[in-house]
Amino acid sequence: MSASIQGTHLVGGISRGWTPVRPIHRHNPPFLRAGRCLSQALRCQGASTAAETIAKARVVRDGGTRDASMHHLETERFSALDRVSILSEALPYLQRFRGKTVVIKYGGAAMKDPTLKAGVVADLVLLATVGIRPVLVHGGGPEINIWLTKLGIEPNFKNGLRVTDEATMDVVEMVLGGRVNKSLVTLIQQSGGRAVGLCGKDSDIILARQMVEKEIGFVGEVTGVRSDLIKTLVADDYIPVVASVASNGAGQALNVNADTAAGEIAAALQAEKLILMTDVAGILHDRNDPSSIYRVLTLRGCAELVGQGIIAGGMIPKVDCCIRSLSQGVRATHIIDGRQKHSLLMELLTDEGVGTMITG
Ligand code: ADP
Ligand code: MG
């Protein structure tokens, strides 16, 4: 199918007619150079985390102790000058985003692999260390299914929504607010960050009302966000980690879509960016072909793709929440591949970016 949607740019040969460039970078050659250099470094075969790159550069500067493998890395991969250049060329990005809030949704399939998860967390800590203010919002469907099964409760879905009876809601709350949330908090702490784990019920961060389709049980539609606690935490350099369990304002927990929760939190915080990390490269024209990715989509383009059935299933709440958060003042929204190493850093600190950007 040919895609003639105005304001969309596809790679992979479907359409090359119109190429919106990220506005902040368009007329700024130093950004382009910085982007390429850093992204090359991040992509470099066998490159370790950017945090490691920074740490190694620091060892060189400080004349600290170096082991043989580090010496090998320095000489084989980058010269000391290369690596320091990479850092200095990232400066415009760091200056641009310093002090800015970035809401990141992480969950589902992209969170299953422990190595990938540790990598995402390390990138998050790096961002916080350089003065960017990340807020992590997470779901955890696969882990909920594991625990439901262990407890002899069969996971049950209707129109893509989890049928959440009372027993299931208990498990959702325990697993998301407990195991999944605390495992992310622990990983952040272990990577040298300072995390505070919360769920939407804490201080009514996420308020919701039960959906009208009563047969799906305690599933909520987000009605509001109280962001004061999150603002206090980020101002004090903590990384808030928020599980997507909402309060109905009367003591009942409700299961809400984590993308939607992240979008509303981003809007309430007037975040610089909303980044949804998932288990695909971005929005694809053909779901079986990662090269058919839409790099940039407008709101209208998204609506047309939903109408054509190209955007479906779990991608619909992602697109919806991007649209809603953009209309409420969030400056940019992105759907990126949580399975790709350093995708978060590539999106924030390089010109190339990754995944699909949805713009107004
Ligand atoms: P998450 O756990 O990250 O929320 P979901 O499974 O809810 O992930 O949503 C992502 C899924 O959306 C993809 O794995 C894919 O199956 C589906 N999807 C539907 N339409 C598209 C599309 N056009 N491009 C990419 N993925 C799509
Ligand atoms: Mg989903």
Automatic annotation (TrEMBL):
Pathway annotation from the record: Amino-acid biosynthesis; L-arginine biosynthesis; N(2)-acetyl-L-ornithine from L-glutamate: step 2/4
GO molecular function, one term: acetylglutamate kinase activity
Matches recorded under Pfam families: AA_kinase
Domain of life: Eukaryota
A cellular component annotation (GO) from this entry: chloroplast thylakoid
A single BP term in Gene Ontology: L-arginine biosynthetic process
SUPFAM superfamilies: Carbamate kinase-like
Keywords: Amino-acid biosynthesis, Arginine biosynthesis, ATP-binding, Kinase, Nucleotide-binding, Transferase
InterPro entries from the UniProt entry: AceGlu_kinase-like_sf, AcgluKinase_fam, ArgB, Asp/Glu/Uridylate_kinase, Glu/AcGlu_kinase, NAGK-C
E.C. number: 2.7.2.8
Enzyme class, first EC level, given as a word: transferase
Domain Aspartate/glutamate/uridylate kinase: 100-337
Protein name: acetylglutamate kinase
